[in-house]
Amino acid sequence: MYGTLQPLFLKFAKYNREHKCNIAKVMSTTTLTTKPGTNLIQEEMEYCIAEIQAIETELNAQFEVLGEQIDTGFKQIGELTKHGIQVAKSIGRTFDSEYAAIGTTAMVFAGAAVFGAIEKMNAARVHNAALDKMLKLKKKLASEKLAKTEKLAERATKVQERIGQLVEVEAEKTYAKEDVENPLFKLQLANMQRIMNIYRLSSYSKILVDFLCSEYRAWNIGKHCSSKNRPTYFDANSMIAKRLCPNHNMECELSRLEKNKNLLGVDVFIVTDIALLSPILCKYGFDSNNYDDEDEYSADIMKSLPKIQSPCARKLLKKNAAYKTYKRHMFWFKYGQTTIFLGITILLLSLVFFLLSWLDWRAWIEWTLGIIFSLCACFISGYISYGNEMPKSTAEKARKKLKEQAGYVKISRPDFSKKNVVWAGFTGAIKGAISSFSD
Fold this sequence. Notes:
By secondary structure, this protein is an all-alpha fold. Helix content is 68%, strand content 1%. The chain has 17 helices and two strands.
Protein backbone atom coordinates (compact mmCIF):
# COMPACT_ATOMS: atom_id res chain seq x y z
CA MET A 1 0.00 0.00 0.00
CA TYR A 2 2.79 2.41 0.86
CA GLY A 3 4.96 1.74 -2.13
CA THR A 4 4.18 5.32 -3.16
CA LEU A 5 6.49 6.47 -0.39
CA GLN A 6 9.55 5.04 -2.13
CA PRO A 7 10.17 7.97 -4.52
CA LEU A 8 10.38 10.21 -1.45
CA PHE A 9 12.56 8.06 0.78
CA LEU A 10 15.79 6.98 -0.85
CA LYS A 11 18.28 4.47 0.50
CA PHE A 12 20.94 5.76 2.89
CA ALA A 13 24.44 6.19 1.56
CA LYS A 14 27.18 6.05 4.17
CA TYR A 15 26.59 6.83 7.82
CA ASN A 16 29.08 9.43 9.03
CA ARG A 17 31.07 8.45 5.91
CA GLU A 18 32.24 5.29 7.68
CA HIS A 19 29.35 3.17 8.93
CA LYS A 20 26.40 1.70 7.06
CA CYS A 21 23.12 2.85 8.62
CA ASN A 22 20.50 0.09 8.47
CA ILE A 23 17.66 1.92 10.16
CA ALA A 24 15.07 -0.59 8.96
CA LYS A 25 16.87 -3.34 10.86
CA VAL A 26 17.23 -1.27 13.99
CA MET A 27 13.56 -0.23 14.08
CA SER A 28 11.77 -3.09 12.35
CA THR A 29 9.38 -3.95 15.19
CA THR A 30 6.69 -2.12 17.13
CA THR A 31 7.87 -3.37 20.52
CA LEU A 32 7.53 -0.52 22.96
CA THR A 33 10.51 0.01 25.24
CA THR A 34 11.70 2.71 27.58
CA LYS A 35 14.28 3.61 24.90
CA PRO A 36 12.33 4.35 21.71
CA GLY A 37 15.53 5.30 19.84
CA THR A 38 18.99 3.78 19.63
CA ASN A 39 22.28 5.66 19.75
CA LEU A 40 22.58 5.19 16.00
CA ILE A 41 19.19 6.78 15.37
CA GLN A 42 19.93 9.58 17.83
CA GLU A 43 23.23 10.36 16.10
CA GLU A 44 21.50 10.35 12.71
CA MET A 45 18.88 12.83 13.92
CA GLU A 46 21.50 15.08 15.47
CA TYR A 47 23.45 15.07 12.21
CA CYS A 48 20.32 16.09 10.28
CA ILE A 49 19.51 18.83 12.79
CA ALA A 50 23.02 20.28 12.47
CA GLU A 51 22.76 20.23 8.67
CA ILE A 52 19.34 21.89 8.73
CA GLN A 53 20.65 24.63 11.00
CA ALA A 54 23.54 25.28 8.63
CA ILE A 55 21.24 25.36 5.58
CA GLU A 56 18.67 27.60 7.29
CA THR A 57 21.42 29.98 8.44
CA GLU A 58 22.68 30.37 4.87
CA LEU A 59 19.13 30.80 3.56
CA ASN A 60 18.36 33.40 6.20
CA ALA A 61 21.42 35.41 5.16
CA GLN A 62 20.28 35.38 1.53
CA PHE A 63 16.69 36.32 2.35
CA GLU A 64 17.89 39.18 4.56
CA VAL A 65 19.83 40.63 1.62
CA LEU A 66 16.91 40.14 -0.76
CA GLY A 67 14.52 41.66 1.78
CA GLU A 68 16.62 44.79 2.03
CA GLN A 69 17.42 45.19 -1.66
CA ILE A 70 14.43 43.68 -3.52
CA ASP A 71 11.14 43.55 -1.57
CA THR A 72 9.83 42.87 1.93
CA GLY A 73 8.24 39.54 0.98
CA PHE A 74 11.70 37.99 1.03
CA LYS A 75 12.23 39.38 4.50
CA GLN A 76 9.02 37.68 5.63
CA ILE A 77 10.39 34.37 4.36
CA GLY A 78 13.61 35.18 6.21
CA GLU A 79 11.60 35.36 9.42
CA LEU A 80 10.35 31.84 8.74
CA THR A 81 13.91 30.60 8.30
CA LYS A 82 14.84 32.19 11.63
CA HIS A 83 11.96 30.27 13.12
CA GLY A 84 13.34 27.08 11.56
CA ILE A 85 16.71 27.67 13.22
CA GLN A 86 15.04 28.19 16.61
CA VAL A 87 12.94 25.03 16.27
CA ALA A 88 15.98 23.02 15.18
CA LYS A 89 17.77 24.13 18.35
CA SER A 90 14.85 22.98 20.51
CA ILE A 91 13.65 20.11 18.34
CA GLY A 92 12.56 18.05 21.33
CA ARG A 93 9.41 20.14 21.59
CA THR A 94 6.20 19.05 19.91
CA PHE A 95 5.56 20.89 16.66
CA ASP A 96 2.23 22.46 17.64
CA SER A 97 0.19 25.26 16.14
CA GLU A 98 2.31 27.89 17.88
CA TYR A 99 5.25 26.91 15.71
CA ALA A 100 3.30 25.71 12.68
CA ALA A 101 1.60 29.06 12.25
CA ILE A 102 4.66 31.20 12.81
CA GLY A 103 4.32 34.47 10.97
CA THR A 104 0.53 34.61 10.92
CA THR A 105 0.69 37.93 12.72
CA ALA A 106 0.94 40.76 10.22
CA MET A 107 4.59 41.59 9.59
CA VAL A 108 5.68 45.11 8.77
CA PHE A 109 9.31 45.64 7.89
CA ALA A 110 11.26 48.81 7.47
CA GLY A 111 14.28 48.97 5.19
CA ALA A 112 15.81 50.39 2.06
CA ALA A 113 13.86 48.05 -0.23
CA VAL A 114 13.83 49.35 -3.78
CA PHE A 115 10.24 48.30 -4.24
CA GLY A 116 9.10 50.03 -1.07
CA ALA A 117 9.11 53.27 -3.03
CA ILE A 118 7.57 51.70 -6.14
CA GLU A 119 4.43 50.65 -4.28
CA LYS A 120 3.72 54.28 -3.46
CA MET A 121 4.34 55.65 -6.94
CA ASN A 122 1.44 56.30 -9.26
CA ALA A 123 3.30 57.50 -12.34
CA ALA A 124 3.59 54.68 -14.91
CA ARG A 125 6.95 55.87 -16.26
CA VAL A 126 8.49 55.98 -12.81
CA HIS A 127 7.07 52.55 -12.01
CA ASN A 128 8.52 51.01 -15.20
CA ALA A 129 11.88 52.70 -14.72
CA ALA A 130 12.08 51.34 -11.17
CA LEU A 131 11.28 47.84 -12.46
CA ASP A 132 14.10 48.09 -15.00
CA LYS A 133 16.49 49.25 -12.30
CA MET A 134 15.40 46.42 -10.01
CA LEU A 135 15.85 43.81 -12.74
CA LYS A 136 19.49 44.84 -13.19
CA LEU A 137 20.02 44.39 -9.47
CA LYS A 138 18.29 41.02 -9.57
CA LYS A 139 20.50 39.79 -12.42
CA LYS A 140 23.59 40.83 -10.47
CA LEU A 141 22.42 38.99 -7.35
CA ALA A 142 21.44 35.90 -9.34
CA SER A 143 24.86 35.68 -11.03
CA GLU A 144 26.51 35.85 -7.61
CA LYS A 145 24.21 33.48 -5.71
CA LEU A 146 22.84 30.84 -8.10
CA ALA A 147 25.81 28.42 -8.16
CA LYS A 148 26.15 28.52 -4.37
CA THR A 149 22.40 28.02 -3.89
CA GLU A 150 22.35 25.03 -6.24
CA LYS A 151 25.03 23.36 -4.11
CA LEU A 152 22.90 24.17 -1.06
CA ALA A 153 19.99 22.41 -2.78
CA GLU A 154 22.06 19.23 -3.03
CA ARG A 155 22.74 19.33 0.71
CA ALA A 156 19.08 19.96 1.47
CA THR A 157 18.05 16.98 -0.68
CA LYS A 158 20.47 14.65 1.10
CA VAL A 159 19.24 15.71 4.53
CA GLN A 160 15.61 15.24 3.48
CA GLU A 161 16.38 11.75 2.19
CA ARG A 162 18.27 10.69 5.32
CA ILE A 163 15.62 11.76 7.80
CA GLY A 164 12.99 10.52 5.38
CA GLN A 165 14.29 6.98 5.86
CA LEU A 166 13.41 7.22 9.56
CA VAL A 167 9.94 8.49 8.71
CA GLU A 168 9.41 5.59 6.32
CA VAL A 169 10.30 2.97 8.92
CA GLU A 170 8.00 4.54 11.50
CA ALA A 171 5.20 4.89 8.96
CA GLU A 172 5.18 1.16 8.17
CA LYS A 173 4.77 -0.02 11.77
CA THR A 174 1.42 -1.36 13.01
CA TYR A 175 -0.15 -0.54 16.37
CA ALA A 176 -2.93 -2.53 18.02
CA LYS A 177 -5.23 -1.21 20.73
CA GLU A 178 -3.05 -2.60 23.52
CA ASP A 179 0.00 -0.84 22.04
CA VAL A 180 -1.69 2.56 22.09
CA GLU A 181 -2.96 1.99 25.64
CA ASN A 182 0.52 1.00 26.84
CA PRO A 183 2.01 3.79 29.01
CA LEU A 184 5.23 3.49 27.01
CA PHE A 185 3.39 4.56 23.87
CA LYS A 186 3.84 8.19 24.93
CA LEU A 187 7.59 7.75 24.65
CA GLN A 188 7.25 6.17 21.22
CA LEU A 189 4.91 8.98 20.16
CA ALA A 190 7.38 11.62 21.36
CA ASN A 191 10.12 9.94 19.34
CA MET A 192 7.90 9.86 16.24
CA GLN A 193 7.03 13.53 16.67
CA ARG A 194 10.70 14.42 16.95
CA ILE A 195 11.50 12.56 13.73
CA MET A 196 8.59 14.26 11.95
CA ASN A 197 9.64 17.69 13.22
CA ILE A 198 13.10 17.20 11.75
CA TYR A 199 11.62 15.94 8.49
CA ARG A 200 9.26 18.93 8.35
CA LEU A 201 12.16 21.35 8.77
CA SER A 202 14.23 19.54 6.15
CA SER A 203 11.30 19.57 3.71
CA TYR A 204 10.73 23.29 4.17
CA SER A 205 14.45 23.95 3.72
CA LYS A 206 14.36 21.96 0.48
CA ILE A 207 11.29 23.88 -0.75
CA LEU A 208 12.95 27.21 0.09
CA VAL A 209 16.19 26.33 -1.69
CA ASP A 210 14.29 25.15 -4.79
CA PHE A 211 12.27 28.37 -4.72
CA LEU A 212 15.41 30.50 -4.53
CA CYS A 213 17.03 28.61 -7.40
CA SER A 214 13.90 29.13 -9.51
CA GLU A 215 13.88 32.84 -8.72
CA TYR A 216 17.56 33.26 -9.59
CA ARG A 217 17.14 31.38 -12.88
CA ALA A 218 14.14 33.58 -13.76
CA TRP A 219 16.13 36.73 -12.99
CA ASN A 220 18.99 35.52 -15.18
CA ILE A 221 16.70 35.35 -18.23
CA GLY A 222 15.12 38.75 -17.62
CA LYS A 223 12.02 37.80 -15.62
CA HIS A 224 11.09 39.44 -12.34
CA CYS A 225 9.88 36.23 -10.72
CA SER A 226 9.46 32.50 -11.31
CA SER A 227 6.15 30.66 -11.52
CA LYS A 228 6.51 29.31 -7.98
CA ASN A 229 4.57 30.79 -5.07
CA ARG A 230 6.49 32.13 -2.12
CA PRO A 231 6.54 29.14 0.25
CA THR A 232 5.42 28.81 3.85
CA TYR A 233 5.30 25.84 6.22
CA PHE A 234 1.84 25.06 4.86
CA ASP A 235 3.49 23.99 1.60
CA ALA A 236 5.83 21.64 3.44
CA ASN A 237 3.07 20.15 5.56
CA SER A 238 0.78 19.69 2.55
CA MET A 239 3.53 17.94 0.65
CA ILE A 240 4.29 15.57 3.55
CA ALA A 241 0.61 14.82 4.19
CA LYS A 242 -0.01 14.07 0.53
CA ARG A 243 2.99 11.75 0.26
CA LEU A 244 2.09 9.88 3.43
CA CYS A 245 -1.44 9.17 2.20
CA PRO A 246 -2.29 6.14 0.03
CA ASN A 247 -1.90 6.95 -3.68
CA HIS A 248 -1.15 10.54 -2.66
CA ASN A 249 -4.92 11.06 -2.20
CA MET A 250 -5.64 12.79 1.10
CA GLU A 251 -9.30 11.77 1.06
CA CYS A 252 -8.24 8.09 1.11
CA GLU A 253 -6.56 8.52 4.48
CA LEU A 254 -9.80 9.38 6.30
CA SER A 255 -11.70 6.74 4.33
CA ARG A 256 -9.16 4.09 5.35
CA LEU A 257 -9.27 5.16 9.00
CA GLU A 258 -13.02 4.74 8.75
CA LYS A 259 -12.56 1.00 8.08
CA ASN A 260 -9.37 -0.10 9.86
CA LYS A 261 -9.30 -0.92 13.56
CA ASN A 262 -5.52 -1.12 13.88
CA LEU A 263 -3.29 1.88 13.33
CA LEU A 264 -0.32 2.08 11.01
CA GLY A 265 2.53 4.35 11.92
CA VAL A 266 1.49 6.68 9.10
CA ASP A 267 -1.92 6.99 10.77
CA VAL A 268 -0.29 7.89 14.07
CA PHE A 269 1.72 10.62 12.35
CA ILE A 270 -1.41 12.11 10.80
CA VAL A 271 -3.93 11.87 13.67
CA THR A 272 -1.50 13.27 16.26
CA ASP A 273 0.09 16.06 14.21
CA ILE A 274 -1.89 19.28 13.91
CA ALA A 275 0.07 20.54 10.92
CA LEU A 276 -0.34 17.28 8.95
CA LEU A 277 -4.03 16.73 9.72
CA SER A 278 -4.97 20.31 8.79
CA PRO A 279 -4.22 20.10 5.02
CA ILE A 280 -5.93 16.68 4.90
CA LEU A 281 -9.08 18.15 6.46
CA CYS A 282 -8.90 21.10 4.05
CA LYS A 283 -8.73 18.74 1.11
CA TYR A 284 -11.38 16.34 2.41
CA GLY A 285 -13.83 18.91 3.71
CA PHE A 286 -13.82 21.68 1.12
CA ASP A 287 -12.80 20.05 -2.16
CA SER A 288 -15.68 18.33 -3.94
CA ASN A 289 -13.87 16.58 -6.77
CA ASN A 290 -10.42 17.95 -7.57
CA TYR A 291 -7.68 16.38 -5.46
CA ASP A 292 -4.77 17.42 -7.64
CA ASP A 293 -5.08 21.19 -7.44
CA GLU A 294 -3.99 22.33 -3.99
CA ASP A 295 -5.66 25.73 -4.35
CA GLU A 296 -9.11 24.70 -5.55
CA TYR A 297 -11.74 24.71 -2.83
CA SER A 298 -15.48 25.23 -2.75
CA ALA A 299 -16.70 27.79 -0.23
CA ASP A 300 -20.18 26.22 -0.15
CA ILE A 301 -19.00 22.74 0.83
CA MET A 302 -18.03 21.38 4.22
CA LYS A 303 -18.33 17.62 4.39
CA SER A 304 -19.06 15.69 7.56
CA LEU A 305 -16.15 13.62 8.78
CA PRO A 306 -16.45 9.83 8.45
CA LYS A 307 -16.98 7.74 11.55
CA ILE A 308 -13.60 6.38 12.60
CA GLN A 309 -13.80 2.69 13.52
CA SER A 310 -10.54 2.49 15.43
CA PRO A 311 -11.08 3.52 19.07
CA CYS A 312 -7.36 4.31 19.25
CA ALA A 313 -7.58 6.70 16.31
CA ARG A 314 -10.68 8.36 17.77
CA LYS A 315 -8.92 8.85 21.09
CA LEU A 316 -5.87 10.43 19.45
CA LEU A 317 -7.95 12.55 17.06
CA LYS A 318 -9.96 14.12 19.86
CA LYS A 319 -6.75 15.62 21.23
CA ASN A 320 -5.79 17.14 17.88
CA ALA A 321 -6.48 20.89 17.66
CA ALA A 322 -7.11 20.68 13.89
CA TYR A 323 -9.79 18.04 14.45
CA LYS A 324 -11.40 20.21 17.14
CA THR A 325 -11.36 23.20 14.79
CA TYR A 326 -13.11 21.25 12.05
CA LYS A 327 -15.73 19.74 14.36
CA ARG A 328 -16.55 23.12 15.92
CA HIS A 329 -17.00 24.83 12.57
CA MET A 330 -18.88 21.81 11.23
CA PHE A 331 -21.54 22.30 13.92
CA TRP A 332 -22.06 25.94 12.99
CA PHE A 333 -22.00 25.09 9.28
CA LYS A 334 -24.86 22.58 9.68
CA TYR A 335 -26.85 23.96 12.61
CA GLY A 336 -25.68 27.54 13.07
CA GLN A 337 -28.62 29.22 11.35
CA THR A 338 -31.16 26.99 13.13
CA THR A 339 -29.49 27.63 16.49
CA ILE A 340 -29.58 31.40 15.96
CA PHE A 341 -33.18 31.22 14.75
CA LEU A 342 -34.32 29.34 17.85
CA GLY A 343 -32.37 31.61 20.16
CA ILE A 344 -33.76 34.85 18.69
CA THR A 345 -37.28 33.41 18.47
CA ILE A 346 -37.28 32.35 22.12
CA LEU A 347 -35.95 35.76 23.15
CA LEU A 348 -38.57 37.68 21.16
CA LEU A 349 -41.43 35.44 22.26
CA SER A 350 -40.34 35.92 25.86
CA LEU A 351 -40.48 39.68 25.36
CA VAL A 352 -43.96 39.36 23.79
CA PHE A 353 -45.19 37.25 26.71
CA PHE A 354 -43.68 39.71 29.22
CA LEU A 355 -45.35 42.67 27.45
CA LEU A 356 -48.78 41.05 27.24
CA SER A 357 -48.64 39.98 30.88
CA TRP A 358 -48.60 43.67 31.84
CA LEU A 359 -51.68 44.50 29.73
CA ASP A 360 -55.14 44.26 31.22
CA TRP A 361 -57.16 44.16 28.02
CA ARG A 362 -59.81 41.85 26.78
CA ALA A 363 -58.66 38.32 26.19
CA TRP A 364 -59.40 38.29 22.45
CA ILE A 365 -57.33 41.47 21.97
CA GLU A 366 -54.41 40.02 23.91
CA TRP A 367 -54.62 36.77 21.92
CA THR A 368 -54.75 38.67 18.63
CA LEU A 369 -51.78 40.83 19.58
CA GLY A 370 -49.94 37.75 20.84
CA ILE A 371 -50.40 35.93 17.53
CA ILE A 372 -49.39 38.99 15.48
CA PHE A 373 -46.33 39.70 17.64
CA SER A 374 -45.33 36.01 17.59
CA LEU A 375 -45.54 35.86 13.80
CA CYS A 376 -43.49 39.04 13.58
CA ALA A 377 -40.95 37.55 15.98
CA CYS A 378 -40.64 34.42 13.82
CA PHE A 379 -40.30 36.51 10.67
CA ILE A 380 -37.60 38.71 12.22
CA SER A 381 -35.75 35.66 13.54
CA GLY A 382 -35.93 33.94 10.18
CA TYR A 383 -34.73 37.01 8.33
CA ILE A 384 -31.78 37.49 10.68
CA SER A 385 -30.86 33.79 10.81
CA TYR A 386 -31.44 32.59 7.25
CA GLY A 387 -31.02 35.87 5.38
CA ASN A 388 -27.23 35.66 5.54
CA GLU A 389 -24.45 33.47 4.17
CA MET A 390 -23.47 31.91 7.45
CA PRO A 391 -22.62 28.42 6.04
CA LYS A 392 -20.34 29.95 3.42
CA SER A 393 -18.58 32.26 5.87
CA THR A 394 -18.24 29.42 8.40
CA ALA A 395 -16.58 27.18 5.80
CA GLU A 396 -14.21 29.99 4.80
CA LYS A 397 -13.28 30.64 8.44
CA ALA A 398 -12.68 26.92 9.05
CA ARG A 399 -10.43 26.59 6.00
CA LYS A 400 -8.49 29.72 6.93
CA LYS A 401 -7.97 28.50 10.50
CA LEU A 402 -6.86 25.04 9.35
CA LYS A 403 -4.37 26.52 6.89
CA GLU A 404 -2.96 28.72 9.64
CA GLN A 405 -2.61 25.68 11.91
CA ALA A 406 -0.56 24.07 9.13
CA GLY A 407 1.73 27.11 8.93
CA TYR A 408 0.16 29.29 6.23
CA VAL A 409 0.93 32.99 6.26
CA LYS A 410 0.41 35.43 3.42
CA ILE A 411 3.72 36.44 1.90
CA SER A 412 3.64 39.74 0.04
CA ARG A 413 4.63 39.90 -3.63
CA PRO A 414 4.74 43.31 -5.33
CA ASP A 415 3.29 44.13 -8.72
CA PHE A 416 6.03 43.27 -11.20
CA SER A 417 3.98 44.00 -14.31
CA LYS A 418 4.90 47.00 -16.41
CA LYS A 419 2.33 49.73 -16.83
CA ASN A 420 1.00 50.94 -20.16
CA VAL A 421 1.95 54.62 -20.17
CA VAL A 422 -0.68 55.61 -22.76
CA TRP A 423 -3.47 53.78 -20.93
CA ALA A 424 -2.35 55.21 -17.61
CA GLY A 425 -2.51 58.72 -19.06
CA PHE A 426 -5.95 58.06 -20.54
CA THR A 427 -7.45 56.72 -17.32
CA GLY A 428 -5.82 59.56 -15.39
CA ALA A 429 -7.45 62.11 -17.70
CA ILE A 430 -10.86 60.47 -17.28
CA LYS A 431 -10.54 60.48 -13.49
CA GLY A 432 -9.42 64.11 -13.53
CA ALA A 433 -12.39 65.14 -15.71
CA ILE A 434 -14.83 63.35 -13.41
CA SER A 435 -13.24 64.96 -10.37
CA SER A 436 -13.48 68.42 -11.96
CA PHE A 437 -17.09 67.86 -12.96
CA SER A 438 -18.07 66.74 -9.46
CA ASP A 439 -16.47 69.83 -7.99
